[in-house]
Amino acid sequence: MAKKKKQVEESYIPAPIAEELITDTLEKNYMPYAMSVIVSRAIPEIDGLKPAHRKLLYTMYKMGLLGGKLTKSANIVGQTMKLNPHGDGAIYETMVRLTEGNEALLHPLVESQGNFGKQYSRDMAYAASRYTEARLAPICQELFGDINKNTVKFVDNYDGELQEPTLLPVAFPNILVNPNQGIAVGMASNICSFNLREVCAATIEYMKHPNCDILELMPAPDFPLGAELLYDKEQMREIYETGRGSFKMRAVYEYDKANNCIEIKEIPYSTTVEAILSKVMELVKANKLKEISDARDETGLNGFKLTFDLKRGTDPDALMLKLYKLTPLEDSFACNFNILIDNIPKVLGVKEIISEWVRFRMGCIKNALKFDIDKKSEKLHLLTGLKKILMDIDKAISIIRHTELESDVIPNLMSGFSIDKVQAEYIAEIKLRNLNKEYILNRTAEIERLIEEIDELNRIISSEKEIKKLIAKQLDAIAKKYGKERKTKLIENAEVTEYNESNFIDDYPLTLFVTRDGYVKKVSATSLKFTTSEHKLKEGDEIIQTIETTNKCELMFFTNKSTVYKAYAYDIPDSKVSSLGEYVPGLLGFEQDEKFLYAVACDTYQGFVLFAFANGKMAKVELENYQTKSNRKKLINAYSDKSEIKSIIRLLEDTDIVAFADNNKVISVDTSLIPLKSTKSTQGVQVMKITKKGAKLVRACLAKDSGLDNIKHYKARNIPAAGSFLRTEDTQISLF
Question: What is the pTM of this model?
Fold first, then answer.
C-alpha cells in the first residue's frame, strides 16, 4: 500500500501556473461584480426605484395589498424572497424606508402599522418584521396602472419560476418626487425629492414647451422633514442643469418664553437627532456653548421636537445663529443625479430627467394602447363572425345538429358561413340559451362602437401630441389627488444672517507674556492690576515678549520652519501670572521639531515685519500679506528659508534698528533704507556685510532696546555696511 502511495506521489506533477496581466484579471473578475452592483443594486432607474424596491412593491401588488387589508411584514418579506434572494434582513430594511412610519419619503409607498423607526434618528431601531404590519399606499395605484397591458417588459426571476417587471409603469416622475441614495462601485447617486404638484406642473409645461424654465415651476427641492432651504437661484440653476451641486438647509425653531427654551421642530434631511445632540453636548463640555444648560430629545406622539434649555439672559436668535454655524442644525445636501437609463448610468439635469421620464412614459402608453387595440380587434373579429349568423340562426343550429362528428362542427361552420376557425370556435361555444335574436343583436351592436374605439386608439397612438395630452391629463389628476403643500420653506440667501463669532466674544484689554520656550500667558488688565504674584516660569525659561492687546485681537506665531500659525486671543484660555500659561506648540499643533520664535498681535494689519538672517540680509514685508480671507490657521513660506532666521521684529513705522554679528561688529540702520517687499518669502537685501569668513549676524533689535550708549557711533548712512566694532564701554552687551 505504501509503495503504491509513493508511486502516485512520484507520478503527480503540479500544473504550471498561468501568468496573466493584472488588468486582464480585473476585467474578468472585478468588472462583472462592479457592473452588477451598478446595474442591479445601487443606482435607481427612471421609475425612481432600485431593483430591491421594485421586487418588494411588485410582490405586495401580487399579494393583493393594494387596497387590501394590512398583513404582517414577515409575510411580505417571505413572499418577496421569491424574487429577491438577498435575505430577509435586507428586504425588510428596504421596506422600512418606504413606509409612512419611517418618514423618509415625501409620498410613502407603503402604509404601515407599528414601529418602523425614523429617518431622522440613527439609533431608533425599527421593530422586527413579526411585530409590524403593512400594505401598499393608495398612490401605488399610479405605479401599477396598466401593468397587465404589456406596458413594461417582464423577465424571469432568479430561478425561472416567476416573472417580474424590469420597470414599473409609473404615471408620474417618481424619480424626482421621492429621495433616493445609493453607493455603487466607483460611482454613487444622491437624488433629492421635489414637491409632487410642482413636478407634475413642470412636466406638463415641458411637454408643451421644451424650452421652458423648469426653475420657475419647481424652484427647489422639498423634503419630508421640512426645514428651511437657503435659496440661491443661480446655485440651484446650476444643480438643475448639471445634476451636481449642493445647497444648505437649516432647522426650524421656536422660542418658548415661558420655559426659556428653544424648541427645534424641523431639521435638515441629511442629519440626525443623535448627531445634533452629540455636537451640542460636546460644545457645552468644551465651554463653547455657555448659553445652554441642557439639551434633550422630546419627540413623542405630538411629533418631532428637540429642546435646548437656556441660561438666563440668553438671546435665542443670536444663539441659533451660533448653533447653525457650529452644529448640524445647518447642513448641506450634496446632489448627484446619477440614474440608470437603458442600463447605462448617466448624471442628468432635472430637465433631462423629465425628458427621459416622458420618453419612458410615452412608451408605456403606446404599449397599453397597442394592447387595447389588439384586444378590441380580437373582439371585433369575433363579433363580425357572430353577425354573419344573425339572419340565419336556424342554419347554424342545423349544421351543428346534423354534423355526425364533433371534430367536424368547426369546419362545417366555417364552410357554411365563410368564417375563419377563431370565429367558428366562438360561435360553437355560445350557450343554447343565448341563441336568440335579442342576444345576437345586442352583441353585434357593439361592432360600430368597437370600430370607433379602435379608430380613436389608432389616431392617438400615431400622434405624440395626443399621447402627451393623455400623460398631462393623468399628471393633473395625480397632482390634485395626492398633491401636498410644500414642506421645505425657501429662505433667500440675502435674508440670512451669518454667524460672526467675534460678535459673541467679550472684548477686554489684556497682556500677553510670551516665553522663549513657547509658553504664553493671557492675563486680563483687571487681573494684572491687582496681582502681587511673581511670574512662574519653567527652569531656564524667560519672558521674551510682553504684548498689550485685546481679547479679539488676531495673533501670529512665527516658527523656525518658515511657518506662521494664526489664532485669536480668545482662543487662548485666560491664565494668571502665577501659572505657567499655555504651551503654544501643543495648543496650535506645531510639528514635532518645530520651535516658536516670535509672536505678533494684530488689531489691524498695519505696519510690517522685519526678518534678519544669519547671512546679514534683512527682509521687510508688509503685515497685510499675512491676512487671509478664509479662516486659515497655518501659513507656509512665511519668510525665506535660504539663510537661518535670527530675529523677527514687528514695526508700525520705520525706525532705527541695531544688528549684532558674532565677530563683534555692530551696525545701526534706519529701516527706511530697507525696501518694502510684497512677497513673504523674499530674501530681502544685504544690510550687514559679513567680511570675516565664518562670521554671521546673530541678533537684531530695536535701537532703543539694544542697550548701547552711543547709537550714532554704529549708524550706517547706506546699506550694505560692515558696521563698527563693539566699543569697550558696550562690551557688556550680549550679542545673542
Answer: 0.77
